[in-house]
Amino acid sequence: MSAGIGPLLAIHPLATTNAVLNSLATVLLVVGWVAIARGNWRAHRAAMIAAFAVSAVFLVCYLTYHALVGHVPFTGQGAVRTLYLTILASHIVLAATVPVLAVAMFVLAARGRWTAHRRLGRITLPVWLYVSVTGVVIYLMLYVLFPSAPVPGPLAG
Q1: Range of the domain at 27
Q2: How many domains would you assign to the chain?
Q3: Is 55 a domain residue?
Q4: What are the Cα distances from residue 131, in Å, to 21, 57, 97, 115, 144?
């Protein structure tokens, strides 16, 4: 494992941006959940719209990053590699569902179908939270705990 700040400076800025956006989405999702649990639907709506916007920006940054950099191999071996691949596989599968679930939630809310909105929210929130949190875990495992050779970028030296 790498120690110190030097290796962190070698991480492409878009990779870090993606982790920050995933972290922000996580916070916004929790804020929205707490708001609706307290009956504050205005704060809930604002937080969920913001979470959706942050996730949309994430998607653009993620696609841009991988178009520029391509595949980044995981260098960990043994049990940690199995753990990483398990997290990555579940993350990818569930990440593909988040846009569909989120749009469905917005449609149900826009139509005032609150019972269906709440019912789908019980599925959507945990999936979306899992995807956001595991996105950060994947970043930490791939770039901080088990970094490969530095990825060229504006801050790479």
Answers
A1: 6-145
A2: 1
A3: yes
A4: 12, 15, 10, 25, 19
